[in-house]
Structures are given as structure tokens and as C-alpha cells.
Amino acid sequence: MRDRLEELAEEGLAALGSAATEEDLRRVEQDYLGRHGRITAVLRQLGGLPPAERPAVGRLANEIKERLARELEARLEILRRSRLEAELAGEGFDPTLPGPPARAGSLHPIERVRRELEDLFRSMGYAVAGGPEVETEEHNFDALNIPPDHPAREGHDTLWIEGGDRERLCMRTHTSPVQVRALRRHGVPLRVVAPGRVFRQETQDATHDHTFHQMEGLVVDRGVGVPHMLHAMRSLLSGLFGRELQTRLRPGYFPFVEPGFELDARCPFCKSGCSVCKGSTWIELMPGGLVHPEVLRASGVDPEDYSGFAFGLGLSRIAMLRYGIDDIRWMMSGDLRFLEQFDA
Ligand SMILES: [Zn+2]
């Protein structure tokens, strides 16, 4: 039986040596090492041996199986390598070609608009400022001339943070507190824009969301007046829409400006009314005005010496106008089907 096993080992190794393909090798494996293979067949007869001889023959059989298995692995490896080399040397294979493209992300429409506007304002000498999203009551309301009992405070539907020890904290309801922060920090003269997220306790619908984006603009210097504000707002609009849009100012009331205005622009999408302008051919774009003396004072600026203007721009709204997005809830949805439309 030992002789038979040794014979099988020789044969097996020879068969592996002459196998030219992986398929051949697998066939030899089956033939010798498989459940119905030749070595197994010999082992089945182990019971016919005298008990004393069985362990040694069993060990020999296992040794031979291992030897064949090692040889099989070695042969498979050689085949894999030579196949790879053949592919590399073969025609039509160019190792300098780029691999499959990596999936790149894309910029959110609000991010695109924000970057564009930042560039535009930087080119006009503005700095970009920022502030915290969790804001003190003082920055968000008091310093902006919104007294404690003022209806504007209620109107903002503020999300208050529970458990502030020293000061009442809220999620900022507008980017205007950055005006106060920037003035206190940098003093005058000052020229900044402040983009960022703001939060309101709103019931969501197609035009309202609890989280949206604004951009605040602020210029404070000696002798700044309404004409400067208009110029800034108009430059902003022509930068955004790529051409001059007819504008009009209406009086508007906001506690932190005096006088306050609403700037409307001619609808960039139609001549005689469409769904965006709701048939009026005008769209409301920007509230703004001259910074209220109380706001300047609260920010450490003497209103006798300095004046300024401020305006607020809804980045979410601008992005919706720009890209024809009809529901603000898409903006924060995180839905890739929506976001992938803004590739490249
Ligand atoms: Zn229109």
C-alpha cells in the first residue's frame, strides 16, 4: 500500500507538472485529492491493514496529499503570474491609461452661490466675517435694537437653548449679530459680508424651512449714505444675474436700520409675469437700510462720527432663483438625486 501511495505521488506530481492551464490543474486536483480521488480510494482500504501498520500509512497518505496540494498552489501561482505578464506585454494594454474615474462630490447650490458672492464682494474690498450659530440674546436681539418686548422678537420664532447659565442663548435667527461682533472686534471703518446658516421655528413648506442661509453685508465709514447702499446692492445683483436689473426701493421696517428699505428687482426670468414673480414682474430680494444709531452705539461706534448701511440676502432664496428650485426643503434634504444635478 505504501508503494501504491508513493506511485500515486509521483504520478500526481507529474500530472501537475504537465498541466498547462488552471482548468487542467483543477482536474488533477480532483483526480488525486478529491473526495472520489485516487488517494482517497487507497485510504479507504486502510481498514484492511493490520492495525499496527495503519497509523504509519495514514501519515504517509496525509504527507503525500500535502505535498501535492503545495505543488498545486505553486503551479497555480506560476500560471497567474504568466497570465498577468502576458496581459501586460500584450497589445491594447496601456499601463499609463488612467484607472476607472473616482466618484467626485459636487458643490451644493447654496455653496456655489455663497462662493460666487464672496468672490464678488472681496473684489469690492469687503472682508468675509463669521459668527457662531448659537448666539447670545444680547447679540441676536438687544444690540440690534430689538427691545425685550418688541414684536420682532416674537416674529422671529426663535429656537431658544435651554440651560444657559449666565446668558440666554438661542439659535441665531439672522446673520445680523455678525454686524455687532465684527464692529466690536475690528472697529471702524469696516466693510464685511457674513454668510451663514440661520434658524427659525417654522413649519416647513415649499418656501419655509427651519434652517436656511443668509448673507449679511455691512459697511461703516464716515459719510456713508443711501446712495452707497444702492450701489452695493446693484453691483451684487448684476454680479449674480450677469446683467443690470432694474431695481426699486420700498420703505421697510427693521429695528436695526433707520431708514429701512426693501429692494426689489425686475424679475430676471420674464417680461410680463411668471410663477417666480407671481405675475408682478418684481421680486423682493433684499431688505436693508442705514445702520440704526443705537446699533452703532451698542457696537462701540459713535453715530455722530460714523454711519453705515447693512443689507441681508437670502442665500437659499438666491440659489432657488438661480437654479429654478421650486421647493426650499430640497436644500437641506441631503438627497443625492437632488445634489447630483449640480455636478461639474
Ligand atoms: Zn417673472
Topology of this structure?
Layout: H1 2-18, H2 22-33, H3 38-44, H4 54-89, H5 109-123, E1 127-128, E2 134-136, H6 137-140, H7 151-155, E3 160-161, E4 169-171, H8 177-186, E5 190-199, E6 211-221, H9 226-241, E7 247-251, E8 257-266, E9 282-291, H10 293-298, E10 307-314, H11 315-323, H12 336-339
Parallel strand pairs: 1-5
Antiparallel strand pairs: 2-4, 3-4, 5-6, 6-10, 7-8, 8-9, 9-10
Helix pairs in contact: 1-2, 1-4, 2-4, 5-11
The structure holds zinc ion.
Rounded to the nearest angstrom, the distance between the terminal CA atoms is 74 Å
Query: What is the CA-based Rg, rounded?
Result: 39 Å
The whole-number mean of residue pLDDT values reads 88
Which residue ranges are poorly predicted, with pLDDT under 50 across at least 5 consecutive positions?
A: none
Number of domains: 2
Strand order of the largest sheet: 1-5-6-10-9-8-7
Instruction: Name the CATH architecture of the largest domain.
Output: 2-Layer Sandwich
Let me know the CATH homologous superfamily of the largest domain.
Answer: Bira Bifunctional Protein, Domain 2
Q: Which range best describes the helical content: under 10%, 10-25%, 25-40%, 40-55%, 55-70% or over 70%? A: 40-55%
How many individual β-strands?
10
Strand count, sense and barrel status of the largest sheet are: 7 strands, mixed
The helix-and-strand class reads alpha+beta
Ligands:
zinc ion
Shape: elongated
- Which fold name is given in CATH as the topology of the largest domain? BirA Bifunctional Protein, domain 2
Q: What fraction of the residues are assigned to beta strands by DSSP?
A: 15-25%
Assembly of the depicted chains? single chain
The total of helices stands at 12
What is the CATH domain class of the largest domain?
Alpha Beta
H/E element sequence: HHHHHEEHHEEHEEHEEEHEHH
